[in-house]
Request: fold
Amino acid sequence: MRGLLEPDNLRVVLIATRNPLNLGAAARAMSNFGFLRLRVVNPYELAFREARSAVGASAVLKHAEEFQSVADAVADCSLVVGTTTLRERERHHELYRLEEGAERMRGSLASQPVALLFGSEKTGLSNEDLSHCHWLMHIPTREKHPSMNLGQAVAVCLYEIVRSEHAKISPDPAEHASAEKLERITEVLLDALRDSGYLSPKASQTSEAKVRRLIRRLHLDAGDAELLLGMLRQIVWKLRSRK
Amino acid sequence: MRGLLEPDNLRVVLIATRNPLNLGAAARAMSNFGFLRLRVVNPYELAFREARSAVGASAVLKHAEEFQSVADAVADCSLVVGTTTLRERERHHELYRLEEGAERMRGSLASQPVALLFGSEKTGLSNEDLSHCHWLMHIPTREKHPSMNLGQAVAVCLYEIVRSEHAKISPDPAEHASAEKLERITEVLLDALRDSGYLSPKASQTSEAKVRRLIRRLHLDAGDAELLLGMLRQIVWKLRSRK
Reply:
């Protein structure tokens, strides 16, 4: 049985963040994707204060909880996941690509508190930080330039977690133009083509069929068909009015 | 037959970007995910200069191409995709969730140049910008806070495009008409509509955008575009020859 993702179960944990803009950006992405519980561990004090007091600072940031250690910040969580770039130090953990990791996280998020850890801009998660993690995941960046901006990494991870949560919204299937309407368009276009000399007055059936097929390939919806028909009628009227 | 995603076919197009940090962040995400071709349209001059000269500015940013109009920036692209939040203005376009939109883009990216448009931080894409798009996609943010930071939106979109790279890519069979060709058709149709009195000689930008969107919705392939252009040219020639 699968439960629903419970966003309130996720704690995004930012460790030793240095740049107030990154704190702000991470909080904004959280708000965009509906994850509102931010925890910060030993942020640069000034950065945290600046970010919190910035104009337009999000509610997420204002309600962020501050901790002195990773252990405290993840104490109530039953799953702790770290983020890393591939090349960082020796690995002692299972490492999943983001899409697989997010799928695993969704399973837990239905019923349990889960922590998702992001390290500092400069050094990422330390070995001590990593030691609190059950497993790690990485965003599939290219080898030549693997390290993402912190705010962008948070955005991409959260996007992946909500990504498949909602059913697909397929755009309203547009109402297609009726065959009758398409045939009217074809006739008026043929008139315009004859009147303009593009087709000879006695154009062959082959030419007519070519125009007919063209109109069908356009996959017009009802509204566009009406629009096009109006344009063509006016053009034909004008072509004829000058004869 | 399946092709591979060809990252070099993607042009990320940033329109009227105001903040140099966002230009830098967008370029960084591009580099992270292996898309190296950035185009900027009318960026705030100072922002562009600052971003380019910033310490650690990426190669992507240094090689960015600058354009004066959206039409020029997408001229060589056979698919033009806009990004939008759900609530922006009235919709005239098909709108897909990012994951579905990215899947569609991957199909084209295997063989053809594709443009992905991002509007300014404040206003997003204008109606004129949108009129150059074949369809739109949106990131599934929550209703209460839908608007993402520009750099994060770029990161999430590019992530989604590479995400399933190793999974399915079904290339589009048809060679789509280039944006340049579609713009030619739009211009000639506008001439026909003005000459026939359907539009007043000084038709508003709104009317022009309406015609431009109609042409994009037809999803013309290269052959049909040529055919339609020939027809319209002859009609305009005739309309004028009698004046």
